[in-house]
Amino acid sequence: MVVINGKKYKLIENVKDAFKEDVVVERYAEVLGKYDFIVGDWGYNQLRMKGFYHKDHAKASYDTRIDMLEDYLYEYCNFGCPYFVLQKID
Hints:
Blueprint: E1 2-4, E2 7-15, H1 21-27, E3 37-43, E4 46-52, H2 69-76, E5 83-89
Antiparallel strand pairs: 1-2, 2-5, 3-4, 3-5
């Protein structure tokens, strides 16, 4: 478990050791707190983070549903990039 800005998260995926807590805390934006999941991916030594919802969440659109993660990684991330998934714990 990790606490970021007062919110608790569980690291559920850590591909290629992508999760670096100090960098995540530094790059965290308050807007990410509304999402059920945070996905972080590395490209060109830069961490990018995006929020996702559970697939049945009322605010979830096609592009923000966690079950569409593979599509996001394929379309928007560098091939084979390191990435991680944090799940918010209520």
